[in-house]
Each structure stands twice: as structure tokens, then as C-alpha cells.
Structure to design on (595 residues):
């Protein structure tokens, strides 16, 4: 990855993280932890990987992203705003009763959102259906879907995985945000889905295990996924929940709570500093 | 009676899918390992490349159907009512209903007339479940003629539709001139003393009941209410005003189905007595379908009894 692109992507990540904090702070609720963990993945998808057009968000041959872990909506909205789908300013309206930015994504209200999600385990099935639709139409687009590691407890994930593999959907890329925390604790404490990679291998997937907060590894994983034919890919992305905001990192309590005014100031100062260092 | 044509509405569903498939290459049919029973096997035979078996995973099937529909296809997702509306309720609610995606759910083996398979497969809750989903259209055809027209009409409209079909071969009620419109009830017989509003296989039984009542000097109107949602409020109000007493009849729990839908309209607009014929909030059991329909009171005799009770309850 050339240094210009990397710098741009790092700035995208900061922008996404600021959007997450801005949104959840103004909403006084939401899910910052599992949003912050996927900033690198979203930044790369929207800057480099996906064929999308913010000016024509419904174009037929666009690549699709289904945020199966719909509670990370603040991250998706921030990434879409950063990519120009709608004004960044609107992120402050997250979860307000007069806002189109619902607590969980709604495909009919938000430009760039390809599927309404929020109930865990369901987004991956819709992504599989899109990938199947792409195959029927001559394999014109690729489909990406981001799942939480806790979400792997939903049986439907494995129904969808079995089906995607059986139908050889090599245009489907599943990303597991393996931040190791869910609401009730670490994922081992609650109901361990480990070993995640081996499970997807057993279901017939091409599996790539990476550090999901490392842009170089994210880039190479998506590149490799495109070269694999005859089977879907699962990228198991080890990430840090709350990544980029010091006091939120690896803290389960930040799964579903918003920063107060003081915490907001600290978080934004950290992100401003990171941005200033990048802009040099 | 010997020359009455009897066909299961699921057969009409299978045939109508083939008819649609011939006209429209964007029609895709999904099933969950029940193609022989739901009759989507007919479509599979005609258009194998456009038939997708999702295996025994109804929740996933509904999501896949939604995703595929967003890519511009008209997807029919089929299973038994128990699994389509019951097992996959939340997938239908959140991934089809909430985004209002153009998926048509073909639910067969609805109601007690599943017969010998027994209670685990006799879904008498599906209308109630589907009715609570905003924007869901629900159609419960009375015979094969109406089932075919319902499938064709569902394919024409944009948005989710739940179609309810039966396993049992039922007598044909309508002829080739029958006009079907989603959201419209139809008077099959005018009357002045009481109105029987029926759906599904109870429509033919309602007509029998009207004949029986006539012999006792009671003039009953009969309405076929194929569309449960959106319910035809106008025809219900009209019936209440004209006859002042209503009986509903359906192969479904008396809670949450046609009877509830009619009662809601009546209570809010034109209060008159409403009596409901349906499964009396109980699970079914194994047995021959026709026998079960008698055991659970889904017959003309019970409709007559409820009709008289409704008339007696008039102010």
C-alpha cells in the first residue's frame, strides 16, 4: 500500500471514529465499542474495495455491504458520511426522533445502506441472497457482510454459512469483527464461538485471519478474497473493541453506552491529536 | 355433488408459479426441503435453474429471499405455514417486513386440515402472527381458482405478501369469470338476517350453512374474505348495516385471525353482534382432515349455530 493511500485511510479512520463519538454522544446512547473496532475495515471498503457511488447510491451493479452487526450503525453512518453519501453534520442527529439515522440501519432511509439490520444473525442471510442475485445476473457485484463475534451464537449465521458454501458464492465476503467482547462479558465467558476460523473452514469457506485494525492486513485480506473461486471467504478480523479512544479500548462497558460530556471531550481531543499528527 | 372439482390450493399455487415463470424470468422460487408437498416442485421441474432449495433452514431462507429480492427478483419463498410464519416469524418481521421487501411467502399446509401429521404441523396461528407486521398483505384463498388469481396478483404488487394455502383438496367455489382483487371482500350471496364472513376452505362451508339456514327461514348473506390484511372495512361495515349480525368462519385460532380482524372493524364502526367460528384456542391432533374439521367445529352446522346466536344477540 503506498504511503499516500495509507495516510488517507488513516485519516478516514479518524474521521469515522470522530463520527462514532459525535453520534453516540449526541444520542446519549448507542454502541461505540463495537463501532470503533471496525473503522479500518469500513474505511478500506468504502475508499478502496467497493464499487459504490455516493451520487448514485442505488446503482444496480454496486457492491453491497450488509452490516449484520447492525448495532455498529454509528460506524456505518460515519463511514458513509465520510465517503460522501450524506452530510457529516447529520451524524449528530443519530437516534433522534426526527432523524433518518435510526439506532440500527434502515435501507429505506439512509443513502448507502443496502439492508436494514439490527436483529443479529439475519444480515448475513440477506447478504447471501444478494450474492446469489449477483450470480443470477452474471456475477456483476460483490457482497460484504460484517458480523460480530458474539453474533456467531445465532444459529442462523451457520444456516447462512452452510448455504453460501453449498451455492459456491465466491462473490461473498464475510468479515467477523473478533473484538472478543459481547454484552455479558468476553465471548469465551458467555458462549465461546472459538475456534472461529476452523468453524468457517469446516463450513467450506476460504478463511483469512488478520489483525483487523491493521490497514495493510485488511487490504491484503480483501485482495486475496477476490482471487478465491468456488467458495466464499470469511475474514476473521482480530480487533480491539473501542479502538482509538484510550479509555474505551477493551472495556466491555463501552459496548452499549455513550460518552458523557467530559468523556466526549477527552475522546475528541485524542482523535484530534491523531488527526493532527497524520496531517503533520 | 359427484361432479364438483376438488383441488388443494397448494396445487393451484404450484401451477400458478409455473404460469408466472413462463411470463417473467425474474421470478425465482425458494423452498426449504418441502418442494413435493408445497408443490413448488412443479416450478422446479419447469425451471430448474430458477428454483433454489434452501434446505431445512427457514429463517435463512427468508433472509436470502430478501437479499435476492433487493437485486431485482420477485422471490417466492415457500414452506409449511408453521415454519414460514412460525419458525421464521422474526426473520419475516425484520428482514422482509420492516424494510418492506418484495418477497412473496407461499405458506402451505395451513390450519387443522393438515390432518394426520398432528398438532406440531397444524398452524392455526399464522394469520395472527403475520397480521401484526406493518405493511404485510395476507391472502387466504378459498379454492384453486382464487389461489391462482391470488398468486398472479401478489406477483404484480410491490411489497411483502403472505399467501396461505391448504393441503386438503377442497371443492371449487368460483368459476372462470371470478374477479379477484387484493383487499376486496366479495358477496357470494346477499341476505338480510345475518352475514357470514368466511375465508379459505370455510367459504364453501359458509355457502352450505346459508342453504341450511334458508331451510329454517333465515336469510344469510355470505362474504368471501380472501384478503385478511388489508381487511376490506367497507364490505364489513356494509354487512353490519344491512344484516345487523355477523359470523366469521376460518380455519385458524379464533384469536387473531379473520374473526379478530372483523371484530376490530365492527367494534370501532358499527357495533353489532359478532360470533366467531374457528379453532377454539386449542392445539389440534392427528386424524383425517375431514374428520378433524368436524371435531373442531369448522363446519356448516357450527356456522349455523353461531349465526342463530348472532341473530338472537341483536338488540
Amino acid at each position: 500500500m503506498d504511503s499516500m493511500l495509507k495516510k488517507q485511510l488513516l485519516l478516514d479512520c479518524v474521521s469515522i471514529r470522530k463520527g462514532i463519538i459525535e453520534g453516540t454522544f449526541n444520542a446519549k446512547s448507542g454502541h461505540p465499542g463495537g463501532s470503533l473496532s471496525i473503522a479500518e475495515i469500513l474505511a478500506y471498503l468504502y475508499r478502496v474495495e467497493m464499487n459504490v457511488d455516493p451520487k448514485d447510491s442505488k446503482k444496480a451493479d454496486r457492491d453491497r455491504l450488509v452490516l449484520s452487526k447492525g448495532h455498529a450503525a454509528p460506524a456505518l453512518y460515519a463511514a458513509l458520511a465520510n465517503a460522501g453519501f450524506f452530510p457529516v453534520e447529520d451524524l449528530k442527529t443519530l437516534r433522534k426522533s426526527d432523524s433518518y439515522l435510526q439506532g440500527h440501519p434502515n435501507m429505506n432511509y439512509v443513502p448507502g445502506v443496502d439492508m436494514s439490520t439490527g436483529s443479529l444473525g439475519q444480515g448475513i442471510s440477506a447478504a447471501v441472497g444478494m450474492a446469489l442475485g449477483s450470480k443470477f445476473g452474471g456475477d456483476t457485484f460483490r457482497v460484504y457482510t460484517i458480523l460480530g463475534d458474539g453474533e456467531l451464537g445465532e444459529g442462523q449465521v451457520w444456516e447462512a454459512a452452510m448455504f453460501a458454501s453449498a451455492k459456491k458464492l465466491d462473490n461473498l465476503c464475510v468479515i467477523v469483527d473478533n473484538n472478543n467482547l459481547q454484552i455479558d462479558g468476553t465471548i469465551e465467558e458467555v458462549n465461546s464461538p472459538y475456534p472461529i476460523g476452523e468453524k468457517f473452514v469446516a463450513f467450506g469457506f476460504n478463511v483469512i485471519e488478520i489483525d483487523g485494525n491493521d490497514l495493510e492486513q485488511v487490504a491484503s485480506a480483501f485482495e486475496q478474497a477476490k482471487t478465491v473461486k468456488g467458495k466464499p471467504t470469511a475474514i476473521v478480523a482480530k480487533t480491539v473493541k473501542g479502538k482509538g479512544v484510550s479509555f474505551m479500548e477493551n472495556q466491555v462497558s463501552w459496548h452499549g453506552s455513550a460518552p458523557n460530556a467530559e468523556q466526549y471531550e477527552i475522546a475528541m481531543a485524542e482523535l484530534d491529536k491523531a488527526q493532527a499528527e497524520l496531517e503533520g | 355433488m359427484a361432479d364438483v372439482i376438488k383441488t388443494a390450493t397448494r396445487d393451484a399455487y404450484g401451477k400458478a408459479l409455473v404460469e408466472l415463470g413462463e411470463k417473467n424470468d425474474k421470478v425465482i422460487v425458494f423452498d426449504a426441503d418441502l418442494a413435493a408437498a408445497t408443490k413448488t416442485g412443479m416450478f422446479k421441474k419447469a425451471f430448474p435453474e430458477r428454483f433454489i432449495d434452501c434446505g431445512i433452514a427457514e429463517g435463512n431462507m427468508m433472509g436470502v429471499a430478501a437479499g435476492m429480492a433487493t437485486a431485482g427478483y420477485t422471490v417466492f419463498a415457500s414452506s409449511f405455514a408453521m415454519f414460514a410464519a412460525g419458525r421464521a416469524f422474526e426473520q419475516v418481521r425484520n428482514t422482509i417486513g420492516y424494510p418492506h421487501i418484495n418477497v412473496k411467502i407461499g405458506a402451505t399446509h395451513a390450519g387443522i386440515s393438515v390432518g394426520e401429521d398432528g398438532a406440531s404441523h397444524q398452524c392455526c396461528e399464522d394469520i395472527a402472527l403475520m397480521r401484526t407486521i406493518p405493511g404485510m398483505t395476507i391472502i387466504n384463498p378459498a379454492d384453486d381458482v382464487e389461489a391462482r388469481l391470488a398468486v398472479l396478483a401478489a406477483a404484480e404488487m410491490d411489497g411483502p405478501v403472505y399467501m396461505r394455502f391448504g393441503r386438503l383438496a377442497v371443492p371449487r367455489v368460483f368459476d372462470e369469470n371470478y374477479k379477484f382483487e387484493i383487499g376486496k371482500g366479495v358477496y357470494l350471496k346477499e341476505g338480510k338476517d345475518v352475514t357470514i364472513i368466511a375465508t379459505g376452505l370455510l367459504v364453501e362451508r359458509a355457502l352450505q350453512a346459508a342453504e341450511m339456514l334458508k331451510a329454517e327461514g333465515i336469510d344469510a348473506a355470505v362474504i368471501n374474505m380472501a384478503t385478511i390484511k388489508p381487511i376490506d372495512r367497507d364490505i364489513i361495515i356494509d354487512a353490519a348495516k344491512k344484516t345487523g349480525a355477523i359470523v366469521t368462519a376460518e380455519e385458524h385460532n379464533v384469536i387473531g385471525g379473520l374473526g379478530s380482524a372483523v371484530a376490530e372493524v365492527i367494534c370501532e364502526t358499527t357495533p353489532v353482534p359478532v360470533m366467531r367460528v374457528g379453532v377454539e384456542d386449542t392445539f389440534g391432533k392427528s386424524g383425517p382432515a375431514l374428520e378433524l374439521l368436524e371435531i373442531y367445529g369448522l363446519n356448516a352446522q357450527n356456522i349455523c349455530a353461531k349465526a342463530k346466536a348472532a341473530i338472537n344477540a341483536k338488540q
Notes: Strands of chain A lie at 64-67, 143-148, 172-178, 181-182, 185-186, 206-211, 233-238. Chain A touches chain B at residues 60, 66, 106-108, 114-116, 118-119, 121-134, 136-137, 155-156, 159-160, 162-163, 166-167 (CB under 8 Å). The two ends of chain A are 20 Å apart (CA to CA). Chain A has one domain: 3-279.
